[in-house]
Specification:
This protein has ten helices and 22 strands. By secondary structure, it is α+β, with helices and mostly antiparallel strands. The protein folds into two domains: about 5-240, Rossmann fold (3-Layer(aba) Sandwich); about 245-365, Nucleic acid-binding proteins (OB fold (Dihydrolipoamide Acetyltransferase, E2P), Beta Barrel). A hairpin with a 2-residue loop joins strand 1 (about 5-10) and strand 2 (about 10-15). Helix 2 packs across helix 3. The longest helix has 18 residues, at about 180-200. The model is unreliable at about 1-10 and about 375-389 (pLDDT under 50).
Length: about 400
């Protein structure tokens, strides 16, 4: 992935991040929408802001675009403070969920609009519009009115219009949110392919965790106005640092436990009503022996039967899902989900559950996902709640 530019210091060249946010906050009247936010984004990166409605991600994108100003903190692009730079003078373009196309113009007219306002020549406009429409797989759509296009085609026109000016960064605010599932998945592949071919930095806002996992180089997961974890898709999924991250990304069993012994990168715990095991630990949170904690185990990291049972329960439901079976096992009144093989007879009745060696994570104890619901109440203006819905 391309890195930042360099500046000379007393110790030699020092990297200047492509985009850096330092201590960025935002208040609307008495509502704190963004708490102190620090991020660095590399040139050529597909970076996603992910989180529930009202968590602050759209507000953060609007601050980057210049449509909103930060209450405090700095946004620096290639080392330059953008605080006083208006939206129209930033080398960024934005793609909205609502497309925001000009209904009285043709496809080509919409795509060419930005080039005309910048004074590009007729031949240059023609060539660049032709090339960008080919890139988004609409090579023959130029003369058509945008009103005749499907939702997916209109979104590709909006993308072409944003890219034709060759921005240094593209900001995308839930651009696929209004489309049906099949079309969304198709355009996810298209967006990812276009970004990799052009090498343009994409900053993408979504509340859809599968979308974020499928498309991103890195993800910043947000909750209640804060960035709670940043990492690659596999890291975010396999190395959650909190209950919120574990439950928001994918499916997880969250099991109460007590710490027996804790080191820097792992802890030995005993599950309430179950056996002892060693789990990995990520992040800076300190675990102390005898303290309550939470064991986070994905369904695919558990198996029914084995040499070292961790839990005992009763199968209440098994569901065939093609690639695997999902077992809902009741353990002391809590349902534990296990992903099992489709081979052989399905498990029934009383069973023992084992942990796949080397799997599972321990996180500090915190309340259940009321934190996820709280994000919608605490964060964001009414406008953002509408945008994030």
């Amino acid at each position: 992935m391309p890195g930042g530019i360099h500046a000379t210091t007393a110790d030699g060249p020092a990297p200047i991040p492509f985009l850096r946010l330092s201590g960025v906050t935002k208040r609307f009247d008495e509502t704190q929408v963004l708490r102190s936010t620090d991020l660095e984004i590399a040139q050529g990166e597909f970076f996603t802001l992910l989180g529930p409605s009202g968590c602050g991600k759209t507000t953060l994108l609007r601050i980057l675009s210049g449509f909103e100003s930060a209450s405090s903190g700095e946004v620096r692009f290639r080392g330059k403070d953008l605080g006083r730079t208006p939206a129209e003078r930033r080398p960024f373009n934005m793609v909205f969920q609502s497309y925001a196309l000009f209904p009285h113009m043709s496809v080509a007219g919409n795509v060419a609009y930005g080039l005309r306002t910048k004074g590009a020549g007729r031949e240059e406009i023609r060539e660049r519009v032709r090339g960008i429409l080919e890139l988004v797989h609409l090579p023959d759509a130029g003369p058509r009115p945008v009103s005749e296009l499907s939702g997916g085609q209109q979104q590709r026109v909006a993308l072409a219009r944003a890219l034709v000016n060759e921005p240094e960064m593209l900001l995308l605010d839930e651009p696929l949110g209004a489309l049906d599932l099949k079309l969304r998945k198709f355009l996810q592949d298209e967006l990812r392919s276009i970004q990799r071919r052009l090498g343009t930095t994409f900053i993408y806002v979504t509340h859809d965790q599968e979308e974020a996992l499928a498309m991103s180089h890195r993800i910043a997961l947000m909750n209640a106005g804060e960035v709670v974890q940043v990492g690659g898709p596999r890291e975010i999924y396999e190395q959650p640092q909190s209950r919120f991250v574990a439950e928001f990304i994918g499916e997880a069993n969250v099991l109460a436990c007590k710490v027996l012994a804790a080191g820097r990168n792992e802890a030995e715990v005993v599950l309430d009503g179950g056996g002892a095991c060693t789990l990995r630990k990520y992040g800076d949170a300190r675990l102390v022996p005898t303290d309550p904690a939470l064991a986070v185990v994905r369904p695919e990291h558990l198996q029914i039967g084995g040499a070292e049972p961790l839990l005992k329960g009763v199968v209440r439901q098994n569901v065939f899902l093609g690639t695997h079976c999902r077992y809902d096992v009741e353990v002391d009144g809590q349902i534990v989900r296990v992903a099992g093989s489709t081979a052989g007879a399905p498990a029934e009745g009383a069973v023992e559950i084992c942990l796949v060696p080397g799997r599972g994570v321990v996180v500090p104890d915190e309340p259940a996902s009321a934190v996820v619901q709280q994000a919608g109440r605490q964060g964001g203006s009414a406008a953002e709640d509408a945008d994030d819905a």
